[in-house]
Amino acid sequence: MTDPKKDDLDDLFADMRNLAVVPSDALMTRVLxxxxxxxxxxxxxxxxxxxxxxxxxxxxxxxxxxxxxxxxTVAGIWVGVAPPTSVQDITAFLIGDQESLExxxxxxxxxxxxxxxx
Amino acid sequence: xxxxxxxxxxxxxxxxxxxLPRVLAQATRMLANxxxxxxxxxxxxxxxxxxxxAWRQDEAQVSTWLYRVVANLCTxxxxxxxxxxxxxxxxxxxxxxxxxxxxxxxxxxxxxxSDALAQLPxxxxxxxxxxxxxxxxxxxxxxxxxxxxxxxESLTARGKRALADLMAGxxxxxxxxxx
Lengths: 118, 179
Description:
Structural class of chain A: mainly alpha
Strand content of chain B: under 5%
Order of helices and strands of chain A: HHHHHH
Distance between the termini of chain A: 126 Å
Oligomer: heterodimer
Largest sheet of chain A: none
Radius of gyration of chain A: 46 Å
CATH architecture of chain B: Up-down Bundle
Helix content of chain B: over 70%
Number of domains of chain B: 1
Largest sheet of chain B: none
């Protein structure tokens, strides 16, 4: 058995659900205006975190600087291993020629003979 | 939401076009007053703009959140109305507008229903409105109101009974005797 009170109410509910509601242009404008007043501007995104190697690389100026550093290192080693004549001349001029000094004369060693264990 | 929070102005327009019609419809059905409904809709959207930078959920939950906000804002308005109106007062019809139902009798009944909602306890009014005016399922309402489905069933049953009783006292005035 149906309840007439609830039938009327259900009909009214249905009418209200079918109600067509369209926002006016004025309301749209007000809402968009509100949005503009609170919307964050010029948001700077967080830079992605870098690992320690990338941060060190960035500290010395990036890959170009690392290339220059590597070239300088190789050149330094090469100069150390096979110094050009001009470098030797400059070195001799600055710190003098290479000289050797015998702490124990060769003759003494010959007299002493070979070192033997025991 | 993320685009809006990142300063994308087009995002505000897209969100407004997508969400405002439903927000306004919900407020209109609960309040049966276009001016009040527009104020509630604007207020709800403003709250959305303000919360956008902190939003960490997907858009499906934006609508859930908005249902809750609009329901709360409407019951705030109904509470104020409850103090100033009695059901013996004749409900004034809503302003006629192309977007609103043309039938004056239906409008009068809608206003009467809104005034009757104002007489209910707020949680009952919200549950009844979400169930019968928005046509939402009980699980959806439970999520919106953050209560159990069983509580929703209880609130809607009691609320609907109370509404039927309140409206029954105005049958002649609302033209139901002529139906």
